[in-house]
Design brief:
The chain is α/β, with parallel strands linked by helices and 255 residues long. It is 28% helix and 20% strand. Strand 3, helix 2 and strand 4 form a beta-alpha-beta unit.
Amino acid sequence: MGSWSDGGNVVTKVVPGLLIATQDHAQAAREACGRITKTIRDALRDRGAATVALSGGGSPIETYRLLAQETIDWNKVHFYFVDERAVPPDHARSNYAAAKAALFDPGGVPAANIHRMRGEASDLAIAAQDYDAELRDTVKSKLGGLPSLDLVVLGVGDDAHTASLFPGEPTVHVTDRLVAAVAAKGDREARLTLTPPVLENARASVVIVLGKSKHAALEQIWAAHGDIDETPGRVVRGFRGSITWVIDRAAGGMG
């Protein structure tokens, strides 16, 4: 998995992408915020605008809080979502609600620049089609005829899922849509998720992975060989842009 130093952060190559191994959650949030900020500023410098897709879950929230404190022209940054649960936008489990509280409101992001998934829709298949159309229409940068987001922020679940691409679900193999509906299963809510074609097309991605429970999933994703149906997180191996992994000691199996 690479080297480690108790004296501070270590930046080393992994497959796929670049690994930043940190001591704890706070340090991971600072590193992730720094990478995200640089990517946004580079996009603003090079293209005059930036497009960013955010994930939910607990791992990125402190990063979003730090990002809200950065000096960035939010009028030129458009935010999208990697996935969303089938809940109202003010629900405690809404990815939009979490990002709104941590980043959008404190950072002063214009409402017109926030493109949320309609998780509250009665028909998620139609909501997926609508979000697909919104991506194609509003993300001006294209690669191979498809939208190319400047940055995608991802996490990894204990079961090695990323976005809402879950083990045993066909969504990881979708190639004809940018957004798909994911059916509820057990205690898991139905969801909307970006699909591999648009995730793979991003210019850059930052994957934030924290906690001991994620270590086995990382090992599966980073293994030389594996089954994408069992380990959907391996979809990142097909990403065309840069990938930066930000992990803590526990996720790296070092404490």
